[in-house]
Amino acid sequence: MSAAILQQDPHRTRDECENVLEVAIGREVRAFRHQSGMTVAELSRRTGLSIGMLSKIENGNTSPSLNTLQSLAHALSVPLTSFFRRFEDVHHAVHTRSGEGVEIERRGTRAGHQYNLLGHLGANTTGVVVEPYLITLSSDADVFPTFQHEGIETIYMLEGEIDYRHGKAVFSLKPGDTLFFDADTPHGPEKLVNLPARFLSVIAYPQRK
After folding, report:
1. Sorted alphabetically, which CDD domains does this protein's record hold (predicted)?
2. DSSP annotation string for 114-130
């Protein structure tokens, strides 16, 4: 597989100045303007704001009034509140130490299948729930390619070897292998080749309102 070029810099960190409201608003205005393919001059014509004022707003050098923000929101066709999203974001991290994952029984759990929930992010601004599991299959584990649920799932094989079914396809998973799939299609381990087997399963699905 050829190397792909990421569109985002995974090493970029948020500048501390983004915690300043004016800077956060300015960056959102600039981002929405770029997304719409609009120049500063065109935005100036649509809002009646001078190019100099728009430059100050985008660079975080001035605090725009609510009327100004309303004009910008209308011109850029975005909600007024979208200018504050970067400033208001709350970010969470869950640290689970080795052996401390919560052992649970998921719907459809069979004999010999141990599920340890490693964390849970649900109430977030992305509208997505993420659940990472450490799954261990012991020597007396059942096979059942019958899991089916909403969202997407990623499996990363840590130990052992299994044949994993997704729909009509069967994949041989060995340590280091990854399987990424639509979880709405029936899936599950079909053949336990080398046990015990352990793998990480990360499930992401839309946050229910």
Report:
1. cupin_XRE_C, HTH_XRE
2. EEEE---B-SSTTSEEE
